[in-house]
Amino acid sequence: MLDEQIVVPPESLQETDEFHLILEYKSGEQWGSARAPQANRFILSHDVSNGEMSTLETFVASLEDFQPDLVVLSGLHMMEGMGRDLWEERLKEAVVAISDVRNEVPIHLELASMTDRDYMNRILQEQVMPIVNSVGLNEQELLFLAQSGGGPHADLTSWDGIPDVGRVSDILLWILEQHGRADPQSEADLTRIHFHTLAYHILATVDGHWGNQEAAVSAGARVASSQACGLQDVDITKVILKAPLTFHSSFSEPRESLAVDPSRPVTVWSRGNVSFHLTPVLVCKHPLRTVGLGDAISAEGLVFSELTPRPEL
């Protein structure tokens, strides 16, 4: 069923299909006595091979022939459910495999919801995060990262409505400073985070590594609207603006007061050598589709992103 342009390494094929079952529902839909407060989905999966990342080495080996311009990784959340003994060992092996990707090929990691703080902390501090160039995540994953790694606002149990821009900015900066390459002396490769929540998106990048951020963050917001509504283009009669029109660059002082300019809706600010690009999202009033929105947002943002070539050593 895959497009013929998608090449699947023959070594990764298996006899028996595994499966993901996605229950998607609209706002207000009822099941028994429960009524959905908003459109969402519930996903069940029987996917042992992805849970064990059993084809990762096959994938990395195939890159020699495929010669990609970009590598995108996802599915780490599925390994969490396989048990600590497996993920402790497999994460180490995954890091070795990922490290075999040629240096000039950027690697993007797309996160998903997790519940084991030790597992998330291992991804953040010791294993995966420092060896990828870019990360995509939503507000739940961002807060869980802060809680797992002892970052700013880790005392929050959850977001109260639309996540505060200043708090989000603080956590993004912390990740890039403590676990990325905001410090030029750092050996970490992480220089880009694409954050997406329902009402707005932020692209945070370490200066000197990425370009075209305005177009990239705008493209992600546009596809969020059109895909959620099931349309090719954004229909302004079917969307609503929920983003804060004024906000602060940080939750604590010193901080900058910022506002969305409708004529140039990407708001830009800097903290040290990290640049932040925020755009509101035109939120679909009656979403037909919520599955895969995060993937679409990150993918669209990557298409429009420009990676600054590394100087020859």
Q: Helix segment count? A: 9
Residue share in helices?
25-40%
Tell me about the largest β-sheet.
7 strands, mixed
Order of helices and strands: EEEEHHEHHEHEHHEEEHEEEEEEHE
Task: Give the topology.
Layout: E1 19-25, E2 30-31, E3 34-35, E4 40-46, H1 48-51, H2 56-66, E5 71-74, H3 76-80, H4 84-99, E6 107-110, H5 117-126, E7 134-138, H6 139-149, H7 165-178, E8 192-196, E9 200-206, E10 210-211, H8 213-229, E11 239-241, E12 246-248, E13 257-259, E14 267-271, E15 274-280, E16 282-284, H9 293-304, E17 306-307
Parallel strand pairs: 5-6, 6-7, 7-8
Antiparallel strand pairs: 1-4, 2-3, 8-9, 9-15, 10-17, 11-16, 12-13, 14-15
Helix pairs in contact: 5-6, 6-7, 8-9
List keywords for this structure.
alpha+beta, UDP-N-acetylmuramoyl-L-alanine:D-glutamate ligase, two-stranded antiparallel ribbon, 9 helices, 32% helix, globular
What is this structure, in a nutshell?
The chain is built from nine helices and 17 strands.
What does this entry look like structurally?
The protein is of the alpha+beta class and 313 residues long. The protein has one domain: UDP-N-acetylmuramoyl-L-alanine:D-glutamate ligase (3-Layer(aba) Sandwich). The chain contains nine helices and 17 strands. Strand 14 and strand 15 form a beta hairpin. One of its GO terms (biological process) is glucose metabolic process.
